[in-house]
Amino acid sequence: TEKPLPKNTQIKSLIWINMKILLLSFLVLLSSCGSIKNQTENFEFISFYGQFYLQDKNANINAQKYNFSDKDGEKRLVEYGDELVIFTQTYGNVKGSYKVLDSEPYISDFKKYDHVVEGSISIKNNELDIFAWGEKTPNKKIRLNNGNYRVRILCSNFNSVKERDLQYDTDNDFYEILIWRSHEKGIKVLKMYSNK
Fold first, then answer.
1. Distance (Å, rounded) from C-alpha 115 to C-alpha 38?
2. What is the reported pTM?
């Protein structure tokens, strides 16, 4: 018969196993947190009517509520709690990027941007989706923890757009979207575009 291990050896083995389990759990948690924050990716898709949308997954979308004013178009953003409507310079060729941040970014100079605006959105289903106009399937899915977020849209290269009512392959305006946790509410225009 095999001799049982000495008590000291058994205790050391148990401690070592528990330490390995704790270390693995910590690494899994760390990788999970890292995948939420500092996500960044480009996107490009065809939309219509100079607009696209950021929505909480499974948001209750009702097109009847849309009643955009000229001022909404000038601000280039409308918020509906779990949805943001972004108005573009291009009619349909949407290009941009998104980045999820730990906190509000500090940008002291908006010279390279044509228009900068931010609003808020509430996430209740652990996912923020980017939609083209009329689409039922998201063009991009962004994994987020539930909570309230601030979204800043930095718009550039408006001069590349020939006409706002027609789509051209040369349209090259760009929409940089920055996302961070915040309880701040309301739309704030940080730089207003003027084509005069």
1. 23
2. 0.79
